[in-house]
Amino acid sequence: MKRPWWLLAVVVAGSVLPVSACSMGVAAKCEKTFAEVAMSVDGVISAKWDCSEQFGGGWQRADVVIEAADKKEAVAVMDAVLKAFAASPDLEDRWSTPQKYKTQDPSIIVSAGDVGFNGTPQVREVREHYGITPG
Questions:
Q1: 3-class DSSP state of 52
Q2: Cβ contacts of residue 104 below 8 Å, gap of 6+?
Q3: Residue 21 and residue 59: Cα distance in Å, rounded?
Q4: CB 116 within 8 A of CB 129
Q5: β-strand 57-66 against 109-110: which pairing, if any?
Q6: At what angle do helices 71-87 and 123-130 cross, to 10 degrees?
Q7: 3-state secondary structure 69-126
Q8: How many angstroms separate the CA atoms of 71 and 30, rounded?
Q9: In the chain, what is the greatest distance between 2 CA atoms, to the nearest angstrom?
Q10: Are 109 and 100 within 8 A, CB to CB?
Q11: Distance CA 32, CA 92 (A)
Q12: In whole angstroms, how far apart are CA 78 and each of 47, 92, 107?
């Protein structure tokens, strides 16, 4: 028996919807957890994430502002934030940490490269770097 073409379209569309609905929950968890962990560190003024989880992959973008009078202080706060990310059991290994951290002084910007990372590390790489296993 041959089925109408529109029935196939309905079945395919119906099977895609739950995937994107699940992805929305993971993205919201990513945004909430990263921001909460970052804000728990002394010296973080604001932290906002935008995460996307689509078709088994995704990306994470962040805007983290830290309080620091100079680059040395900014690096120390960023280092503490990275360690907090490593210690959080709610952050997934595959998620990326922020590319850069800003201060209220636009001339002071630091990145994970300032503490020995090559590029923007994933949470897994941060855990390995610091030898931290989340509890």
A1: strand
A2: 45, 65, 67
A3: 17
A4: yes
A5: unpaired
A6: 100
A7: CCHHHHHHHHHHHHHHHHHCCCCCCCCECCCCEEECCCCCEECHHHHCCCCCCEHHHH
A8: 28
A9: 75
A10: yes
A11: 13
A12: 12, 19, 16
Quote the CA–CA distance of 107 and 103 in Å, as a whole number: 8
How far are the Cα atoms of 14, 97, 100, 129 from residue 113, in angstroms, in the given order? 44, 12, 9, 12
Hunting for tokens 């804000």 — which residue is that?
39
Measuring CA to CA, which residue among 85, 49, 46, 82 is closest to residue 67?
A: 46
**Given pLDDT bands bounded at 50, 70 and 90, which one contains residue 70?**
very high
> CB under 8 Å to 114, separation ≥6 — which residues?
71, 75, 78
Over the stretch 17-34, which tens digit does the pLDDT of each residue have? 344 444 459 899 999 999
Q: What is the mean pLDDT of residues 47-58?
A: 85
Quick check: 121 pLDDT over 60?
Answer: yes
